[in-house]
Amino acid sequence: MFTVLDPESLPHIRPYRDEDAEGVATMWNDSDNEWPGGWTEGTPYTAERVRREHAEERLIETYLAIADDQVAGYCSLSEDTDDLQAAWVPLLNVSPQFQGRGLGRDLLKRALAHTCELGHQRLGLGTWAGNLKSIPLYKKTGFFWVPDTSVTMLNFLPLLFALQPVQEFLDGADWYATKVRDLSAQPDKEKRGKIEIFTYVWRRDGRELRATIDRHARGLLALETDEWAVSCELDDPAVPLGGQRTLTWEVQHKRAGALPVTLVAEADTGLSTSFQVRAEVRDRQVWTQRVAAESTADTKAGADRAPRVRTTAIIGNAVVPLAVAARPTEPVDVALERRYWLAPDVPRPTWLAITNRLDQPVRGSGTLGATDGLALAPEDTALQTYELLAKGRTALRLTPQASQAGLHRLNAHIETSLAAADEADEPTTLPPRTEHLTVPCLAPGALLVQREDDAIYVHSDQAVVRASLKSRWGNHSFSVTDRATGRDLVWQSCAFGPPFWPTESGRKTFEAEVVGGGPDSGRVLIGLTAQSETWPGVVYRRHLEISNSPVIRTWYGITNNGRVPRAVQVQTETGNDVSRSRSALPLREGLVVDESMQFPDLAGSEWSAPDQWAETWIAQYANGLVSGCVWRDAKRVEVSWSVPSLVFDLGEVPPGETRETEPILLYAGRGDWKVVRELWRGHVAPAASKEPPRSHEALTATVAPALFDTPTATPELTLTSYRQRALTGDVHLSATPGVDATPTTFPLMGLSRGAPVSRDLNLAFADDDASAHSLAVDIDPYFPFRWKA
Description:
Blueprint: E1 13-15, H1 21-30, H2 47-55, E2 61-67, E3 70-80, E4 83-89, E5 92-94, H3 103-117, E6 122-126, H4 135-140, E7 143-145, E8 152-155, H5 157-161, H6 164-170, H7 175-178, E9 179-180, E10 191-192, E11 195-204, E12 207-214, E13 219-224, E14 228-234, E15 238-240, E16 244-253, E17 259-267, E18 271-272, E19 275-281, E20 284-293, E21 308-315, E22 318-325, E23 327-329, E24 332-336, E25 350-356, E26 362-370, E27 374-375, E28 382-388, E29 393-398, E30 401-402, E31 406-418, E32 428-429, E33 433-441, E34 448-451, E35 455-459, E36 463-468, E37 478-482, E38 488-497, E39 511-516, E40 523-531, E41 538-547, E42 551-560, E43 566-575, E44 582-587, E45 590-595, E46 601-602, E47 617-622, E48 625-630, E49 636-640, E50 643-653, E51 658-660, E52 664-670, H8 673-683, E53 695-696, E54 699-704, E55 712-713, E56 716-721, E57 727-735, E58 739-742, E59 745-751, E60 757-760, E61 762-765, E62 774-780, E63 784-788
Parallel strand pairs: 4-6, 15-23, 45-53
Antiparallel strand pairs: 1-2, 2-3, 3-4, 3-5, 6-8, 7-8, 9-11, 10-11, 11-12, 12-13, 13-14, 14-16, 16-20, 17-19, 17-21, 18-20, 21-22, 24-25, 25-29, 26-28, 26-31, 27-30, 31-32, 31-33, 34-35, 35-36, 36-37, 37-38, 38-43, 39-40, 40-41, 41-42, 42-51, 42-52, 43-50, 44-45, 44-47, 46-49, 47-48, 48-52, ...
Helix pairs in contact: 1-2
């Protein structure tokens, strides 16, 4: 009988226990240099930190590899936040001194077996393209590198191991050893016709089993054994809205006699097809059926899995579930330039882009119209006939003008035909459709609210605020996009817990209540609510207040309509898309301002206490734009890669009560860190000094004493760092003419926050030289500094 894994075969793999925290901390510290940028964020792990992180994560299980009586490896398993039929490996690690023993393989095997035990169909993980040591291992254990990702890997063995033909083939065999696979560290790009696929192959005793996965359907496209083969394919996965594609089922019987076959097919929402057949197949038989696209509703949310045609195939006495992706597709996409807007009575030119989204040529024409208050020049109302190659694009110049502020609509009425595959055939004419394009016309200082199915947009003449209604992993609760540059000036996400990850609120659909907004409105209040399933009776609450200034107020909370008290904390993360920025942090040691390259890196319980901050704000700024966050009463503050993570404690919320965090003030606009500090001073600490504190960089060099009245001196050079991550390298010294400084080079070890490094210098000055000199201090491979004396 086939088993995915005999637990007795891996006695060195076992679940994590609380008493393992010290060993796990040692493992992470030993593995710090194995991760890009380091794993510990500069603060050595402790048992306390390990326990806290475990308490704040909702994991299915965590497995440890034990070697030489030490924690040698670690593998956590969680839900896939976007698919409840899948599991995810958030973390996999083996200490460098234990690598090469197969511990990573064994941990993945155990996680895979647990995924199968749960009845899930897929296991996923994320890594990075440069992880050349691990990617072949992942592929050998059944993972495929999804093209155009960096880097998502998916494993469909749980789906296959549940199938009777696969179990029969692998009975008595080692599935890991008999699987045949290209292990190259590159994306897995493979096609079957126009369908993008992943292929599993096993060989044993002169026999072969081949399973083909449709990677967009996330299901089995074809299965071939040494007795028979079955498949369901589509001539083109992009089904034009109002058009059709051809489904093809094929069954091949490789033995003598008749093979009883039953096929029953049905389609997901947005597709239309129906097929059912029973047959006796003696050699090979093919059936075809048309599938039509009726709606794109299931594709607009950006789901990873496309709509599917699902077939239950009964081949002999084996049940084989097949799935092929069929994505309803608007054949032609019509869109205005991003961030386009108008001012009242001011004509403004723009481009209307027309894009062919199909892999075949299209021909079309149409007309443009507008709602009252929006005017087009007569020559702009007719879309000239266009012909677009597969995936081709064209653009038309328009000059709309709005007579009044408000949300206007440009209506593009499109008629499209598909080029015939054979020159002898006629083109396929698709039903005409009308695309509605929103054109905001903004009076100075006014805010306009646009409601869509998945989000609420608030438009101003400076920025667009997007509040998400349908959360998915990786989506922010809201974001602010600068109209001029298209960059996210600030974004924020929120989780309720602990545990905070994966968060239930991250996959909820929120109901929205909006107050304000309109041509004469300068303030909008958005309230979002969603019912918890984890905590019966609890309502998650998100609030967002937007004005015609660059300042946004956010606050979060819960209403407990249940029967028992709930102890709740709120975690927020705030970031931006401002590249090559500088970060400003008012720490207890002073105001630190430096390049946002692995800085700031304030993580771990030692540095996350609120008393580490002299003032409760942080800012990142570049090119005249600044993103800032101001808070009060946070229980914990961690900052990693310029993203502040704040934890607020709501305490125990009794039944019938609502509790919310103090407002968080966000700044997204023009300026630098001084603007954010002034916001903090005005709203949090009005008694604070108007004069901003003197700033210094995250790494400083001082020489004491700095004044000399003799031709030689032996001052002390002190290097001070405000980064947690310990710096190791070589210090190079060079002086201006007239002074000789030794040593010119010396090694540096362990320079970090709270651990300065000092070194005696020997200085010799030229005779009668009373001028000021400078000493350049370079730390290779890190940062250059210059000291003047």
